[in-house]
């Protein structure tokens, strides 16, 4: 039986269910329903008081927090949000205002990097979000939007089916019609940006199940195909598999078995749904002996590395999840760990590298992508100012909070364009879309590519022009 066959894992069939039919944990007095004046948090993994107590209120994190940078409000800073968590732990109810401040957090983890006291804000906000999803009743509009997002984004096949209608949406007067519907305009610009950036393929090619290593095998690796990446950026997955093979890795993909890794669900407090996706992915690769499990999307990688934590309460999966997580690497980490074997051909192009938050802050991977790019002869690498500030993508943040996301995107577009680079490179599909849309709004012109596509072009000896064709949608 797969995790999908059994949505709640070990939850009983009679457990309360959320809007998509998933059981919710039954850990506290108000679990499964809205808090009605009771304490903010139930007993199922509330934000840990000892982690809250690590914050010494020094404020070093404030200038790196995008929402504090935007509004200058204490309660929209990491320190302010930790203070609200403390209030909740002390028995305050979960007010609408508290939830609003938690919701405004991008989960970018810039504060984790900046904090000199090692405060694990990542763990704090994750448990807080789970409590909010269980105990706070959102407005009907918000619930409908979230239900639509989570019925669509974690399912690559459903995303793929949307490509035809999206082109119609972009190319005809349909856009003005749907504007009146209220919900779709929030989703459609993001989806339309996806489709603008995706290669014009009628049907994305099905990834192969296995790709043999070229030359002597140095490692055997699994590879995540992802949801958005698979449906809209199949070229990035193809480039990833080619690079790994060229560097001596046998690549195990098993596209028919793997689905969403659960990252979007984790980042939005949907614990049971995330656990269901995680169990399914672990099962999909259970029979394979792998040295590494390679991920080319920053948000997915950070979640996969935390599978041990996500499934820690599940006696059937806890050990397997921790072992699986221990093998997870970002593509750049694996390639740097293995060292270069294949020949790099010159690629005369100027590149601005954008740190995806879930790669730089959540995984601490900053040097490896830069090392890979610097290893390409003829490539000039330029740094973007204020690299620690999020571009506003943050998973589905730009759909749920389009205003602040656009402001952050505009700031990022200015700093990206100021580099004067020909090509913006990053390791996350969400960032690619967000920066593309922001650059287009600013009237700028820069090509966009994933790190894998740049290295792949160098290994294949492809001309720089092949990368410069992927431009921001106008
Ligand atoms: S995760 Fe990002 S947005 Fe949230 S508090 Fe930390 S720095 Fe601010
Ligand atoms: S989270 Fe860290 S940097 Fe921010 S106020 Fe607390 S101790 Fe200081």
UniProtKB/TrEMBL annotation:
Transmembrane segments: none annotated. Signal peptide: none annotated. Residues 1-45 are annotated as: Disordered. Binds 2 [4Fe-4S] clusters. It catalyses: glycolate + A = glyoxylate + AH2; (R)-lactate + A = pyruvate + AH2. Keywords: 4Fe-4S, Electron transport, Iron, Iron-sulfur, Metal-binding, Repeat, Transport. InterPro entries: 4Fe4S_Fe-S-bd (IPR017896), 4Fe4S_Fe_S_CS (IPR017900), Cys_rich_dom (IPR004017), Glc_ox_4Fe-4S (IPR012257), Helical_ferredxn (IPR009051). Its EC number is 1.1.99.14. PROSITE patterns: 4FE4S_FER_1, 4FE4S_FER_2. The keyword Electron transport applies. Its cofactor is [4Fe-4S] cluster. Residues 47-75, 95-127 form the 4Fe-4S ferredoxin-type domain. PANTHER family: GLYCOLATE OXIDASE IRON-SULFUR SUBUNIT (PTHR32479). Component of a complex that catalyzes the oxidation of glycolate to glyoxylate. This is Glycolate oxidase iron-sulfur subunit.
């Amino acid at each position: 039986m797969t995790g999908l066959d059994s949505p709640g894992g070990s939850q009983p069939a009679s457990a309360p269910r959320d809007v998509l039919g998933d059981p919710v944990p039954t850990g506290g007095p108000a679990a499964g329903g809205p808090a009605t004046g009771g304490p903010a948090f139930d007993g199922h993994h509330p934000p840990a008081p000892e982690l809250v107590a690590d914050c010494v209120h020094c404020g070093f994190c404030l200038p790196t927090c995008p929402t504090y940078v935007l509004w200058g409000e204490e309660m929209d800073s990491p320190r302010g949000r930790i203070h609200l968590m403390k209030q909740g732990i002390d028995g305050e109810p979960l007010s609408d205002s508290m939830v609003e401040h938690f919701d405004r957090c991008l989960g970018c983890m810039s504060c984790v990097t900046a904090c000199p006291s090692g405060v694990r804000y990542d763990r704090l906000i994750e448990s807080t979000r789970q409590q909010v999803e269980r105990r706070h009743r959102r407005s009907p509009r918000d619930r409908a939007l979230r239900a639509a997002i989570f019925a669509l984004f974690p399912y690559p096949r459903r995303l793929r089916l949307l490509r035809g209608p999206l082109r119609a949406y972009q190319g005809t007067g349909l856009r003005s019609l749907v504007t009146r519907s209220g919900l779709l305009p929030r989703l459609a610009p993001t989806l339309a940006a996806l489709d603008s950036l995706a290669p014009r393929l009628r049907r994305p090619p099905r990834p192969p199940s296995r790709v043999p290593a070229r030359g002597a095998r140095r490692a055997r690796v699994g590879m995540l195909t992802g949801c958005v990446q698979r449906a809209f950026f199949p070229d990035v997955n193809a480039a990833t598999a080619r690079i790994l093979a060229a560097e001596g890795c046998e690549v195990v993909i098993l596209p028919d078995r793997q689905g969403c890794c659960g990252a979007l669900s984790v980042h939005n407090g949907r614990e049971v749904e995330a656990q269901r996706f995680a169990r399914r992915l672990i099962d999909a690769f259970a029979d394979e002996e792998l040295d590494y499990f390679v991920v080319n999307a920053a948000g997915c990688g950070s979640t996969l590395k935390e599978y041990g934590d996500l499934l820690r309460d599940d006696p059937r999966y806890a050990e397997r999840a921790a072992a699986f997580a221990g093998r997870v690497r970002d593509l750049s980490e694996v390639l740097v760990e293995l060292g270069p074997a294949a020949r790099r051909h010159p690629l005369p192009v100027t590149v601005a590298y954008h740190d995806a938050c879930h790669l730089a802050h959540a995984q601490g991977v900053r040097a490896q992508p830069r090392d890979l790019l610097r290893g390409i002869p003829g490539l000039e690498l330029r740094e973007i100012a204020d690299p620690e500030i999020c571009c506003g993508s943050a998973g589905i943040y730009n759909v749920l909070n389009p205003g602040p996301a656009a402001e952050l995107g505009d700031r990022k577009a200015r700093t990206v364009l100021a580099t004067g680079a020909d090509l913006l490179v990053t390791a996350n599909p969400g960032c690619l879309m967000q920066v593309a849309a922001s650059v287009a709004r600013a009237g700028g012109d820069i090509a966009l590519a994933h790190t894998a596509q740049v290295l792949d072009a160098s290994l294949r000896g492809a001309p720089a022009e092949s990368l410069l064709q992927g431009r921001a949608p106008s």
